[in-house]
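Batch manifest, entry 17 of 40.
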Amino acid sequence: MTRKFLWGIIVLLLITNLTTVAIWMIERNGTAPGPMGVDVDKDKPVATIGEKEVSYEKWVEMLQKNYGKKALEELVNKEVVSQLAKEENIEINNKLVEREIALLFTMEGPLSEKEIKAKKEEWDEEIRYRLALEELLTKDIEVDPKEVESYYEEYKNQYNFEESIQLSHIVLPDKETAEKVHDELEAGASFSSLAREYSIDKETKENGGYLGFYTEGDTFLLDEYYNKAMEMEERTYSEPFLGGNGTVILYLHRKLPDISFKYDELQEHIKRELALEKIEPAISAQALWDDKKVEWIFGE
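Output type: structure tokens
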């Protein structure tokens, strides 16, 4: 994994975990959507501690003070980048976006389909914003083509994403118990709940049998687990089988397909990464504000 890609992932995670404050979208009367997606009645306290009340106005004042400038700055940054990217006809490599999203998913635990959709949409927007920003900031920086080729030859394998499977398991002491647990699954019982109740694998029992993401040949995954999982559909469990230290029921959460690149698909991206290393200080969308004549309530 390249240093610049790691940096990008860290920044993305920081951005997606910022508190999003909808201060400037509050209606003048009645209820309004609060910062956490909860309807708020402005005429009622937002919290009560004993006899002490926290008013809506006090709450919003705190949000404005602690997060207001940062939230507005982020909104301005995204609009500036969006407008300039359209003017410059910047096109984002969809495979690069898919690859970064796949990597981010491997850092997550089990997710519902609704959660997967929401995170994918959120990450897709943030990744496209970052890549467009990087392109805008580096478009006039010269990079030697030989340096690009050399960088590709050294790091090309690190750009590829290997097919990954996300697994949980329940390890049982014997076939009889495994059949009993399988019957409960057939009746609609929760896999994670049954893992906590029955599994003899102490390392995963408390986490509902969750194992994580694995690739082919991973030394931390038994071959029989991988082979069994490749025969399964997503969000299904296996028949009991012998594996490891007992009789196993395997659950396949997701399969993430492999994503690989040829040189011509990465050439511009690598050029941009190398150009970014020539920029000091760290990249910021504020460097582009003058291009769109930005004015805001916080002045200079």
